[in-house]
């Protein structure tokens, strides 16, 4: 009798699913502020903060593997991966909720553009970017920590 050819998912596929689940937990937690969750009401009990910590752990593993595999150009690869994903929501935020362009506003934008939000200000122009700021600084410290 022939055995079925069952493939085992590689670790990156498993980690991608885990990251999706963790991001979903955070997204549903934020959704609760704006809408009734109905059958999803149990998801916030899993904890958004805990999901963020899990997401950072998975990201840390990914960062370590990426750096170990190819340390040359690591920071520029990360910048090319992060900035487009960050710039699009920042532009959308400005279009959706236009703000007066004041020196204070420009300062917040500049601090956010170099991911110093939460370090030098408490204002993240794109709310969830506080965690991206943390992750970017972990990228920056990776060569020193390796």
Q: Can you lay out the helices and strands and say which pair or pack?
A:
Elements: H1 11-31, H2 48-69, H3 74-96, H4 103-113, H5 129-145
Write a concise synopsis of the structure shown.
This protein has 146 residues and is mostly helical.
Core attributes:
146 residues
Characterization of this structure:
The protein has helices at residues 11-31, 48-69, 74-96, 103-113, 129-145. The model has no long low-confidence stretch (mean pLDDT 85). The chain has 146 residues and is mostly helical. The chain is globular, with a radius of gyration of 19 Å. The protein is built from 5 helices and no strands.
Mass-distribution shape: globular
Helical fraction: 55-70%
Element order: H for helix, E for strand: HHHHH
Radius of gyration: 19 Å
Count of β-strands: 0
- Point out poorly predicted stretches: none
Structural class: mainly alpha
Helical stretch tally: 5
**β-strand amount:** under 5%
**Nearest-integer average pLDDT:** 85
Query: Assembly type of the shown chains?
Result: single chain
Give the biggest beta sheet: none
* Distance between the first and last residues' Cα: 50 Å
């Amino acid at each position: 009798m022939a055995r079925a050819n069952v493939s085992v998912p590689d670790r990156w596929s498993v980690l991608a699913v885990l990251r999706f689940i963790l991001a979903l937990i955070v997204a549903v937690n934020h959704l609760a502020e704006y809408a009734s969750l109905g059958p999803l009401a149990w998801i916030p009990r899993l904890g958004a903060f805990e999901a963020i910590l899990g997401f950072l752990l998975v990201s840390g593993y990914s960062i370590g593997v990426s750096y170990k595999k190819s340390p040359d150009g690591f920071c520029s690869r990360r910048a090319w991966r992060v900035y487009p994903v960050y710039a699009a929501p920042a532009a959308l935020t400005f279009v959706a909720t236009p703000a007066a362009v004041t020196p204070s506003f420009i300062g917040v934008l500049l601090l956010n553009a170099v991911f110093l939000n939460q370090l030098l200000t408490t204002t993240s122009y794109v709310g969830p970017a506080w965690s991206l700021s943390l992750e970017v600084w972990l990228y920056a410290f990776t060569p020193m920590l390796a």
